[in-house]
Amino acid sequence: MLISAASPEIRSREQRRQLSDSSSEVLQTKHCLQEHLLGDEYEKSQPSRKEKSLGLLCHKFLARYPDYPSPSQKSYICLDEVTEELHVERRRIYDIVNVLESLHMVSRLARNRYVWHGRHNLPQTLQALKKVGEDNKYIQQIQMIKKREYEHEFDPDGERNEEMASSSGSSEQSEMSFVELPGVEFRAASVNGRKYKSLRVMSQKFVMLFLVSTPQIVSLEIAAKILIGEDQLEDLDKSKFKTKIRRLYDIANVLSSLKLIKKVHVTEERGRKPAFKWTGPEVLPNTQGRCMYTKLEATSTTSSPISESITSKEQCSKALFPSKGKQNFTRHSSLIKLVKSIENDRRKIQSAPTTPVKISASMYLFIIFLLGTSFPLFLSQMRSCIRYLSLPSSHRTCTYQSLPVFPNTIAQIPAITKHQLEGQAKTADEMQMKCALSSPEAVPTPEPSQQPALSQPLGVCPASHSSVSPVILPHPQSGVSYAIYLHPSQAHTVTTYSPGFMLQPLPCANVTGIKSNNSKVLNKITTEEGNTQRGLDEPPKSLAAEERPETKSETSQRCLKRSQALPETNLIKRRKSDEESLDTSLGEPTKNEKPPSNSSQTNHEMDNVQEERQNETKTVDQNMASCCEQCTKENIPEDEDKIKTKQDLPVAFAIPAPETFFPSGYLIPLTHCTHGNKAECSTKEKAGVCSLQHTAYSSPITGVIPMPASELKTVNIPAFHITPLNIMLSPNSIAAAPVLSNSCLNSSSTSSAPNPSSSALNFMLQHIGLIPAGVQIPANPVLQHVPISSQSENISHSSGSTNVQEGK
DNA sequence: CCGTCCCGCCAGTAT
DNA sequence: ATACTGGCGGGACGG
User: Fold this and answer.
1) Which residue, among A132, A166, A217, A121, has the nearest Cα to A534 in the 3D structure?
2) A313 CA to B6 C1', in Å?
3) How far in angstroms lies nucleotide C10's C1' from the CA of residue A94?
4) Quick one: which residue's CA is nearest to C12's C1'?
5) Cα–Cα distance for residue pair A102/A107, rounded to 1 Å
6) pLDDT of A191-245, one tens digit each?
7) Which pLDDT band holds residue A326 (cuts at 50, 70, 90)?
8) Which nucleotide, over all strands, has the C1' atom closest to the CA of A566?
């Protein structure tokens, strides 16, 4: 950790070392304790199968790069180096890189070379994938498969092909396409002529399934069937199915490492089946025109873009990302150069005197959520705000980027938050940057390298929407900024903010029923809920019938070769069990030190806790005063608790509000956000931030899982002061106003309403330096209106006897 | 026994 | 031709 101050390289290296060390240490310890015979044998214990797992490897890989790399310092990935340093065969790295590429976390630059993007693109990617998934009618396909299986129970006939053909056939476009992101640089470089059947596409589709289905749980079986069904029109043979499953495991492993999914089991009449549950960031529903994505023909080798839908989407994306408008390139040096020059241009723009950073630096902080509003409107509102704030006209330069930014940023917050909570390490630069942002001296003369941090991640697109529109308005006179949470209906009123407009704290009474506002959403949920889970399974039967001999001559050879390999010792086996026991004894606090491999159980615990917490919070007093009181004492959600123990941080909190009420607006004075206070923010912040960011590697499952809340609750806290070191986490919350306060450090809220407000606030606060980077106000999963305990764990309603169990 | 999934062959591509 | 990619599936490991 101490080393974290050193160069990123050293740090990451160290990190890796620790990781492996700790894991091996643990193993050795166990051995000492339980190994009866074989004294030294275990020392040179060959890496057990598990130690070689793709998941672990992926963790190591990920540990080398920051989740949110600062745009200024692009990290490149050299496969040779990686393979050497991680001691793995190249082949394995490809597996990892391929799925990362599918998420646009990396993109291929050239042979042997990739660029690391980190999770910056994740929100857009997921949104795009979700959109595509919807377009592909995956939901229907899933249902069809289930239905068919059910029918097959009785008459294993073969009319399924027709159904399948009709369904998947209708979406021929889904053949072999790879979802691209308009904003992803160099993405095109990865699109070479090679057949695109790959893991990449598979990975994307797999993710789509999660994003599309309501309980976000997908069984391998269904995933495999759907993926197969799409590829070839139905020639399901058993071996193909098996292969598909195998691939899915590969993908699932890296997705798990990314903490986007976790393994669960779906139990039904047939018994329990492996499945995976989405644990990644909630993806906001797409709104027409907001989502920009392009599908590229897999086999396309041309340098010209092949977009199937050159519609408003396209245009929109082009308008938003003029410099990124390029679509698809083959790997060609000239093209790469072009890209570079474009990038340089962009950099120049970003380095312009005035940038979003400055905006925040000058304390003209504001966040506008125009959820449910059209983008153009958003833009205009943004402009008016900017105008009002008397920002230098030069801002218009960055308007291009900064404007679209917000929505996008918001979307990213959940991921960021989660990530940070998990204690992932950050690069020193990143930390510095954050500190700098809040420090007075840095503000006046923003360094080019710093600015991108704010503007770039934001540079991409889709607007999010929610029923609540939090707004943070600067109040020059008093030097205090206010965060205002407005009901959508009021949003316009505020955004057209005029100098004379004075925001006033509103009494709790002045609330609006959120439920009714979200009725649409809720309805959707309830209707979708329950039909997503699969029903039966018995693919082999039908598949076997069609099985065709596809044997390869070389198979026999392989067998021989493999048989030569010496079987591993029993030692390894034993170790496994030892490892298990030890892990359990480790307890939560040490989680961050644990090796990534096994954490399902931990997760399980967590979920339980969360449930408890939810119940707990439910009972929390509904009125403000008492709420605050309580907050300070108890009701500290598990998550926060963990964070506290893990990072020694002040806990965040959210104040629960009456379920049926939603404050139509309230103000949160951001006292420290004034011009003169930057210094204090920065100093305190620095300490906080830095310490936070140095958190050691944490186990994959240790992260905070967004809790589903059944109701939206918010609080009206007119006069809280936000202090740098205080964080407020509203675990589930959304609208739960992210309120920070020294006196009120608690949390409890259980709100859950599609409202990125907390995210946005987090983001802003973090960038302003009010909140340590490692902390955040958890954003709330959007459509998770499922009854408290049910979340996605309870799929029972859907297929009656389906049931999900956590862990392996 | 069976769910996982490591391993590495080897075909297809890029240089 | 050589090196890089990555589809693929046998069969070993772990529970």
Assistant:
1) A217
2) 43
3) 20
4) A567
5) 9
6) 444 556 578 888 998 999 999 888 888 888 888 888 887 555 555 678 888 899 9
7) very low
8) C12
pTM over 0.90: no
Contact A738, A654 (CB under 8 A): yes
Query: Residue A261 — very low, low, confident or very high, per pLDDT cuts 50/70/90?
Result: very high
At A356-381, the pLDDT tens digits run 322 232 222 222 232 333 333 333 44
pLDDT of residue A314: 32
Residue extents of the structural domains in chain A = 54-150+195-278
Nucleotide nearest to A57 (CA to C1'): B6
Tell me the β-bridge partners of A471.
Answer: A368, A484
**Contact positions of strand C to protein Cβ (< 7 A):** 4-15
Nucleotide nearest to A330 (CA to C1'): B14
Nucleotide nearest to A333 (CA to C1'): B15
The answer to whether the beta carbon of residue A554 comes closer than 7 angstroms to any atom of strand B is yes
- Rg (C-alpha) for chain A, rounded Å, is 26
pLDDT category of residue A96 using cuts at 50, 70 and 90: very high
Residues 6+ apart with CB under 8 A from A739: A653, A654, A655, A668, A715, A717, A720, A722, A728
Sequence-distant (6+) residues with CB within 8 A of A669 are A480, A481, A482, A719, A720, A721, A722
Q: Among all protein residues, pick the one whose CA is nearest to the C1' atom of C15.
A: A577
At A182 the pLDDT is 56
Q: What is the pLDDT of residue A444?
A: 28
Position A54 pLDDT exceeds 70: yes
**Average pLDDT rounded to a whole number, residues A625-639:** 33
Whether residue A789 contacts residue A712, with contact meaning beta carbons closer than 8 Å, is answered with no
- Is pLDDT larger for residue A681 or for residue A28? A28
Q: CATH number of the domain at A54-150+195-278, please?
A: 1.10.10.10
Dist CA A654 CA A716 (whole Å): 11
Q: How far apart are alpha carbons A672 and A516 in whole angstroms?
A: 36
- Distance in angstroms, CA of A660 to C1' of C10? 59
Sheet holding A106-110, edge to edge: A75-78, A113-116, A106-110
Q: Indicate yes or no: strand B within 7 A of the C-beta of A249.
A: yes
Question: Is A573 near strand B, with its CB below 7 A from some atom of it?
Answer: no
Structure token digits, residue A707: 């809790």
Q: Which of residues 264-323 of A touch strand B (CB under 7 A)?
A: 265, 274, 301
Contact A422, A735 (CB under 8 A): no
Name the token pair of A536. 């039966």
- Asked if residue A663 has pLDDT above 60, the reply is no
Residue A547 has pLDDT above 60, yes or no: no
